[in-house]
Every structure is written in C-alpha cells, then in structure tokens.
Amino acid sequence: MLIKKIFYFYSKKHRERRAKLFLNLLNPTPKDKILDLGSGDGSYIANILPFRENVYLADISEKDLKKAQKKYGFKNTILLKEDDPILPFPDKYFDIVFLLFCN
C-alpha cells in the first residue's frame, strides 16, 4: 500500500509538471485546433484544458472514446484502426498535436 501511495504521489507530480510545460510552451487557446493522439479516455487533456470545442481525441479504443464523450464532454472523437491509422484531415489542419503515451 505504501508503494502505491508513493507511486501515485510522484506520478501525479510528474503529470502536473508535464501539464504546466504543455501550457507554457504552447499556450493553447479555445481557437486552436488541438489533436490529442492516443488520447485514451481524454482524462489527461481534460484536466489541463478548460475548453473542449476544438479539441479532437484520436484513439484505437472505442470504449475509451465513448468514456471521453460521456465523462468529459468531448464531441470530436476519431476512432483509429490499428491497421490503417490515417486521420481524415488535410495536412496542417491542427495547430497543436499532443501525444502523451505511445505503445
């Protein structure tokens, strides 16, 4: 149990540092089109951005994308196919592309 608490403490601090770095370097605004690639359920980007309008989540998990819509109010979700991960957008469509995790 102690190890779990220690891990959570440090992972939380690490997430906070990454979030602060993202916000300071990129200074996203509600007008920016932001792609969160490999978004999972959208929990990370939901906790660092106060807006949802131009945020697009892309992931291979339909379950996670549905959770992102229901729990965090994201409307722009893209289900990626593992064997064909092509996004349906023209080049330079997004102002910011965010990728936190990649397996």
UniProtKB/TrEMBL annotation:
Please give the Gene3D superfamilies that the UniProt record associates with this protein: Vaccinia Virus protein VP39
Name the UniProt key words of this record, in alphabetical order. Answer: Methyltransferase, Transferase
Sorted alphabetically, the Gene Ontology BP terms of this entry are: methylation
Q: Cross-referenced CDD domains, in alphabetical order?
A: AdoMet_MTases (cd02440)
| GO MF terms held by the record | S-adenosylmethionine-dependent methyltransferase activity
Fetch the Pfam families from UniProt: Methyltransf_11
Show the InterPro entries listed in the entry: Methyltransf_11, SAM-dependent_MTases_sf
The protein depicted here goes by the name: Methyltransferase domain-containing protein
